[in-house]
């Protein structure tokens, strides 16, 4: 009992680490090491194919309903809001191509990724965080298996594969929303709508959208896994991991969007 | 309750020399020396927070020591390659305090997980029979298709031990095997630890602060006091003392 008063002081000292700047560099080093480990282990056998398929299904299934709704509403609302501006110049016939370009270049990848960051990123962060604090990851380690390959590699790969597929799905659903609005307002046929919108979409648009979606998917998976895999401090740590997965994931997606717009802009001139 | 007769041989399977481990300024282990002999059940006793779990986590390579040497089956744990460490872990089973069952998998999948990843040439039938044999050994074959959340604390501990045993380890490390269980279930777990030693010829370190468990399963007892093993021997040798750091342990368990 005599040690009771001493313990908190000792533990407080124990958790005091290096300064803020050093901690930032240590974290950065840790992040790059984590990413490096993914590339090192992700492509070497043995492969966790069954778990990868399960994760792809989970990620797609988990986000599908919300993405369908958001994509459709975005298509309807974006068309409706764009019409008055185009009408001022008598250019409402440009609506299908405007919607097509906007959806494919930016709205679909961004919306899909932000929704996935919320739904999938938080879920990965919480799941792995909970596994970490309940020693399930340690249990995998001590049974001579590789938890990183089973838990991290599969989830990051699944997000990287699934987000581009979901992005094109969002674009398609958004176009249907736009078609509904355009056909009700202008009586445009579906054939004419799609002909007009697809004509304006270039190969570069499709490439840029795919590349962005791949990067966003990788980011969502990696951030969720990093936060969850390295979580600590019990249930509080699990909540923090889930929250950080969303916040950091979204923040990085916006930064990547800005950079990629600049980058692919170089090829458009 | 009768204390187990020593069945150990003179062959050392674990040798720990001058082990130090700190977390910041919190010094947990301060020069630990300990040997585990083949086919011996060694009970490690100590107050909560004295570094008992830290010790076995160092043995299995989950933590690295600050100083000192841990030799397991003639290999120095923190000096071997990752591949050698994985090979060593096949021979060292670790049963976690909270069982650490994979809660998104069924009991069958929990047991299959380490087996199929370490013995990739096994057929589906061989995997199934290994899983069923091990569940039968812990008396829980009927839970094979259940989820961990559907099991009681004692059942979870047994499944955790079965999952560890499926790789047929030579050494078993039990972290608080009876913590949080009722007395009857504690007795069942104690019997299981003894059965494991007899049937699978394992050498074990059992971390606990339950003296009933220590007396029932231990061939030898080591008490961690102030970061060192100051008292080692049979149960009676360790507790036949007026040391104020040791007496309350005995009194709480057997007199109160």
TrEMBL record, chain A:
Keyword Transmembrane: yes
A Pfam family assignment: MlaE
TM regions (residue ranges): 59-79, 86-104, 156-182, 203-229, 241-267
Keywords for this protein: Membrane, Transmembrane, Transmembrane helix
Gene Ontology molecular function: any one: phospholipid transporter activity
Signal peptide: none
InterPro entries: Permease_MalE (IPR030802)
A single cellular component GO annotation: ATP-binding cassette (ABC) transporter complex
Protein name: Phospholipid/cholesterol/gamma-HCH transport system permease protein
Organism: Pedobacter metabolipauper
TrEMBL record, chain B:
Coiled coil regions in record: none
Annotated ranges, domain ABC transporter: 14-251
One MF term in the entry's GO annotations: ATP hydrolysis activity
Protein name: Phospholipid/cholesterol/gamma-HCH transport system ATP-binding protein
Segments traversing the membrane: none
Native organism: Pedobacter metabolipauper
UniProt KW keywords: ATP-binding, Nucleotide-binding, Transport
């Amino acid at each position: 009992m005599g040690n009771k008063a001493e313990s908190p002081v000792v533990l407080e000292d124990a958790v005091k680490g290096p300064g803020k700047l050093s901690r930032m560099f240590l974290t950065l080093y840790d992040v790059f090491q984590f990413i490096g480990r993914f590339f090192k282990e992700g492509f070497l056998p043995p492969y966790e194919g069954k778990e990868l398929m399960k994760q792809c299904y989970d990620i797609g299934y988990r986000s599908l309903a919300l993405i369908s709704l958001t994509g459709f509403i975005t298509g309807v609302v974006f068309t409706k809001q764009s019409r008055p501006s185009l009408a001022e110049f008598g250019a409402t016939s440009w609506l299908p191509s405007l919607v097509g370009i906007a959806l494919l270049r930016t709205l679909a990848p961004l919306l899909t990724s932000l929704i996935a960051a919320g739904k999938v990123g938080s879920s990965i962060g919480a799941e792995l965080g909970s596994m970490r604090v309940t020693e399930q990851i340690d249990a995998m380690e001590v049974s001579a298996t590789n938890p990183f390959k089973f838990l991290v590699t599969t989830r990051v790969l699944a997000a990287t594969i699934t987000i581009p597929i979901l992005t094109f799905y969002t674009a398609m659903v958004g176009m249907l929303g736009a078609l509904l609005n355009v056909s009700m307002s202008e009586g445009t046929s579906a054939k004419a709508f799609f002909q007009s919108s697809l004509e304006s979409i270039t190969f570069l648009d499709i490439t840029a959208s795919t590349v962005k979606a791949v990067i966003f998917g990788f980011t969502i998976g990696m951030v969720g896994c990093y936060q969850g895999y390295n979580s600590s401090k019990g249930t509080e740590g699990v909540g923090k991991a889930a929250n950080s997965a969303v916040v950091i994931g979204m923040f990085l997606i916006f930064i990547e969007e800005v950079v990629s717009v600049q980058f692919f802009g170089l090829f458009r001139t | 309750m009768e204390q187990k007769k020593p069945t150990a041989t003179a062959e050392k399977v674990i040798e720990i020399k001058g082990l130090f481990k700190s977390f910041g300024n919190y010094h947990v282990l301060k020069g630990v020396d300990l040997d585990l002999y083949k086919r011996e059940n060694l009970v490690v006793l100590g107050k909560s927070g004295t570094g008992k779990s830290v010790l076995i986590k160092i043995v299995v390579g989950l933590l690295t020591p600050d100083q000192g040497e841990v030799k397991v089956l003639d290999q120095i744990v923190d000096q071997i390659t990752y591949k050698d460490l994985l090979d060593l872990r096949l021979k060292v089973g670790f049963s976690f305090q909270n069982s650490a069952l994979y809660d998104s998998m069924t009991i069958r999948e929990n047991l299959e997980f380490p087996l199929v990843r370490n013995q990739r040439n096994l057929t589906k039938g061989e995997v199934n029979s290994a899983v069923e044999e091990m569940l039968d050994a812990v008396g829980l074959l009927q839970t094979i298709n259940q989820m961990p959340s559907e099991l009681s604390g004692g059942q979870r501990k047994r499944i955790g031990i079965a999952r560890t045993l499926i790789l047929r380890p030579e050494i078993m490390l039990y972290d608080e095997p009876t913590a949080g269980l009722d007395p009857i279930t504690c007795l069942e777990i104690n019997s299981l630890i003894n059965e494991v030693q007899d049937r699978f010829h394992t050498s074990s370190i059992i971390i606990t602060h339950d003296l009933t468990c220590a007396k029932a399963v231990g061939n030898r007892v080591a008490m961690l006091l102030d970061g060192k093993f100051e008292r080692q021997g049979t149960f009676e040798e360790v507790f036949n003392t007026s040391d104020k750091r040791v007496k309350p342990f005995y009194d709480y368990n057997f007199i109160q």
